[in-house]
């Protein structure tokens, strides 16, 4: 995982998705704050004229959430690689039916946007759009974000210039806001399926 997958916003200048690889570290392209790994799992921020700040991945995520870096108001459309899995595809080998498997289609280049209750991907050839209310699961898988659509396909999103963790947080937050506004309660689990209480 790149540091930018976890530190999706710069602690110094508040820039969202501004970290870029720079040698064995990553640097904020807006303010120059340098982020590097120390002791394996920790991430250290080095800011000019300030003491370095070292935290675990979980602590960084908590801090960024606490300062609202994942705010839905800050969401701009992002380049995305979308793959759509067709769960309905029968799997056969040597003429024998072996059940149904999830099989991902080709990778589609597009732009992902999240506004109100709509999630959309615009590619050169087509527009895909889903209501957040259609989602039954939100799950991260290594560097991708996977969303399950009710009675529909499994969607996999990769972010060549951004953070899957940030988008996972954004979708979860937008879902909770929507559920709250509809009086559907508090979401206590997003995977393997969305569960409320
Ligand atoms: Zn910065």
- Unreliable spans are none
Q: Total number of helical segments?
A: 3
CATH superfamily of the largest domain: Pleckstrin-homology domain (PH domain)/Phosphotyrosine-binding domain (PTB)
The secondary-structure element order is: HEEEEEHEEEEEEEEEEHEE
Query: Could you name the CATH class of the largest domain?
Result: Mainly Beta
Helix-and-strand structural type: alpha+beta
Task: Tell me the strand percentage band.
Answer: 35-45%
- CATH architecture designation of the largest domain: Roll
Under CATH, the topology of the largest domain is which?
A: PH-domain like
Name the hetero compounds present.
Answer: zinc ion
Summarize the structure.
The chain is an alpha+beta fold and 197 residues long. It has 3 helices and 17 strands.
Description of the structure:
The chain folds into two domains: 3-69, no CATH class; 74-196, Pleckstrin-homology domain (PH domain)/Phosphotyrosine-binding domain (PTB) (PH-domain like). Helix content is 16%, strand content 43%. The protein contains three helices and 17 strands. The longest helix is centred in the last third of the chain and has 18 residues, at 164-181. It is globular and about 65 Å long. The model has no long low-confidence stretch (mean pLDDT 89).
